[in-house]
Amino acid sequence: MRHSELVRRIESVPAFAHPRPELEQVVTPAEAAADLLQTAVRLDGLEGMAVTDLGCGTGRLAIGAALLGASPVCGVERDEDALRLARGAAEVAGVTVEFSAGDVADWDRPADVVVMNPPFGAQRQHADRPFWDVSLRLARRSVYGFALSDSRTFIARRAVARGARIVETHPVPWSLGRIFPHHTRARVAIPVDLWVIATGTKP
């Protein structure tokens, strides 16, 4: 699938209807999501791979992975309202994704590849830690995730402690609009990195 087509399909997945600041419910930008998924295609193939999207929100990464041939695809999310949007978006996209309600910290189903846009810890310190710990434990091959650039040391140490290998880290364009009441600016650029971590023998 061409990059522009993937971005268009991801953009059609709705944002949160009523984003909750305590959960840092910020929709994944379509360009960044496409970058992550196409990096996964380049390094892991995705076709026929079992993929889990931790904290899937309205399902942008999970649906994108399914569009690129991943199967089975699962999205884990604690917010039932977000899951309703995700299920509807998957139906519109014509893909099969299993969306499950639950806390990421309690998720125990392995997958070949884990994708995620975890909370960055802006509202609750260390909110991202369960996501990285669970992803590194459950991914048989690779983890693809976003994080603030100032989290580099933390994530690298977490990965090394799990015996994983950092394959790539690169900045991605990330612009945050005025979503929550405490936001005072119409739009602000955020320093965000895309991480690729090998947990198995590939990539």
Secondary-structure topology with pairs:
Blueprint: H1 3-11, H2 30-44, E1 51-54, H3 60-67, E2 73-77, H4 80-93, E3 98-101, E4 111-116, H5 129-138, E5 139-148, H6 152-161, E6 165-172, E7 175-177, E8 187-189, E9 192-198
Parallel strand pairs: 1-2, 1-4, 2-3, 4-5
Antiparallel strand pairs: 5-9, 6-9, 7-8
Helix pairs in contact: 1-2, 1-3, 2-3
Question: In a few lines, what is going on in this structure?
Answer:
The protein is of the alpha/beta class and 203 residues long.
Number of helices: 6
Low-pLDDT runs: none
Give the overall average pLDDT.
Answer: 91
Q: What would you give as the CATH superfamily?
A: Vaccinia Virus protein VP39
Strand content: 15-25%
Walkthrough of the structure:
The protein is an alpha/beta fold and 203 residues long. It has a single domain, classed as Rossmann fold (3-Layer(aba) Sandwich), CATH 3.40.50.150. Helix content is 33%, strand content 25%. The chain has helices at residues 3-11, 30-44, 60-67, 80-93, 129-138, 152-161, and strands at 51-54, 73-77, 98-101, 111-116, 139-148, 165-172, 175-177, 187-189, 192-198. The strands form two sheets. The protein has a seven-stranded mixed β-sheet with strand order 3-2-1-4-5-9-6, sandwiched between helices. A two-stranded antiparallel ribbon has the order 7-8. Helix 5 links the parallel strand 4 (111-116) and strand 5. Helix 1 (3-11) crosses helix 2 and helix 1 crosses helix 3 (60-67). The protein starts with a helix and ends in a 5-residue tail after the last strand.
